Amino acid sequence: MPKLPSFSEARSIVLEHAQKLQPPDIEILELPASLGRVLAEPISADRDFPPFNRATRDGYALRAAHLSKLPARVAVVGEIRAGAKPAESARALNSGEAVEIMTGAPVPPGADAVVMVEHTERHGEWVTMQRSVVAGENIVLRGTECAAGNLLLKPGTRLGPEQLAVLAATGHSTVRVFQRPRVAVLSTGDEVVDVAAAPGPNEIRNSNAYALAAQIQGAGAAAAILPIAPDEPEQLRKLIQEGLACDLLLLSGGVSMGKHDLVEAALGDLGAEFFFTGAQIQPGKPIVFGRAPRTGSPGQATYFFGLPGNPISTMVCFELFARAALESLSGSQPSRLRTAMARLKQDMKVKTGLTRFLPAVISGEFDEAEVEIVKWQGSGDIAAAAQGNCWLVVPPDREILKSGDAVNVLLR
Ligand code: AMP
Ligand code: MG
Predict the structure, then answer these.
(1) Ligand 1 atom at minimum distance from 228 CA
(2) For an engineered disulfide with 82, which of 49, 104, 168, 203 has Cβ 3.0 to 4.6 Å away?
(3) Are the C-beta atoms of 178 and 25 separated by less than 8 Å?
(4) Contacts of 41 (CB under 8 A, 6+ apart)
(5) Confidence class of residue 380 from pLDDT cuts 50, 70 and 90?
(6) If you average pLDDT over residues 154-169, what whole number do you get?
(7) How many angstroms is it from 287 CA to the middle of ligand 2?
(8) In degrees rounded to 5, what are phi and psi of residue 144?
(9) CATH fit for domain 7-24+180-329, picks 1.10.10.10, 3.40.980.10, 3.30.830.10, 3.40.50.460
């Protein structure tokens, strides 16, 4: 049997294919509804940012060169508040004069610095400055954040709160975004029953479909949950074919070496091409990745992941591989895995050879981050996964890990 790809080899294969994926069609959304979606148009500054020389502190605006000897007694000749009329902010200042100014207010042309109110003492129409300033201090000059006409957001940018702020600031009450890709979720297994059904003594409820649908939704895509496929070739093939009409197909179960693991064969019957069938990871070793002719669209292909049915394998493999493909299908670049460093809270011994992703709890912030694995019964243990808040990553060449070691975690 050929050697299975390592975790990083498998991830590279997925990323390479992800680059070839086409973004979906475009739609126009109201600004608040665009959160989590991918921008399909360039966003440029419609005016200078900031649009005027903006005071960044409450205090007194003056010309820095006018403040030579300290403490300096200066006449307060006016007040400029945020939103002041242009006529109010247009004033000139002579030596020995200042205007009281507020954060966010336009600095008058006669001033080039703001002395913070904390460094002053006010006596009626006069103010005493205890500190000097240099020209430009506590002012952001017009157009220095972004000049009118310059690009602020590129197409392909995922829209988070920061990007929504830019859209709002540039007057976009609606925005052109890529449509959400549709992801088919096909759970397989004779023992798997729907969440609403009463399971027989040897049956289990379909948790994978719901975990996957949540992950898909979290990645800004739409999940289409198909009926559960039994371990029977004909019905399995029919449902796979249905799933291959979507932009991506995620299968759970049926990819191991068992006699009733029929997914690979069914995909093969439908003309699938496989890029890997298994990777040196745990959980998730039997994962398969490939593409097959797209149902109803001659000449096109739908990519698929055959995820091992054990719930933790399914969830971890989605994070490690499927998310990247989904991001490309959404019109953005695959993002880096969200990882953090933490100190291990315990000694551990594992077998080498596989990259492992173990349910764990990370606590503490910055340099104080610590991580502890959740006791688990293997990759079927959803109770353990639900207690964790991250996955401890154990590299394939580490047999012994010691309490206090710096380790990587995959964040959720
Ligand atoms: P398989 O990958 O089909 O060999 O399944 C591995 C394990 O995952 C078995 O214990 C299955 O019962 C379990 N499993 C498979 N599919 C699901 C599912 N949709 N939800 C929860 N557990 C599942
Ligand atoms: Mg099965």
Answers:
(1) 19
(2) 104
(3) yes
(4) 155, 175, 176
(5) very high
(6) 98
(7) 13
(8) -80, -20
(9) 3.40.980.10
Closest CA to 250 of 191, 321, 299: 321
Pairwise CA distance, residues 45 & 87, whole Å: 25
**Topology (CATH) of 54-140:** Molybdopterin biosynthesis moeA protein; domain 3 (2.170.190)
Q: What is the pLDDT of residues 356-372, one digit of tens each?
A: 999 999 999 999 999 99
Ligand nearest to the CA of 191: 1
For 170-227, the pLDDT digits (tens) are: 999 999 999 999 999 999 999 999 999 999 999 999 999 999 999 999 999 999 999 9
Distance between Cα 246 and ligand 1 center (Å): 23
CA dist., res. 38 & res. 23, Å (int): 10
Nearest atom, ligand 1, residue 310 CA: 8
1 pLDDT band, cuts 50/70/90, is: low
Nearest CA among 344, 291, 281 for reference residue 312: 281
The rounded Å distance from CA 395 to ligand 2 centre is: 28
pLDDT (average), residues 65-94: 94
Question: Which ligand ends up closest to the CA of 210?
Answer: 1
From the alpha carbon of 187, which atom of ligand 1 is closest?
19
Task: Using a pLDDT cut of 90, give the percent of the chain over it.
Answer: 97
Residue of 260, 196, 249 whose CA lies nearest to 226: 249
Q: Kindly list the protein residues whose Cβ atom lies closer than 6 A to any atom of ligand 1.
A: 187, 189, 191-192, 204, 206-209, 252-256, 258, 261, 308-311, 380
pLDDT digits (tens, 9 = 90+) for 145-157: 999 999 999 999 9
Ligand 1 probe mutation, 192, 203, 288, 312, most atoms within 8 A of CB: 192
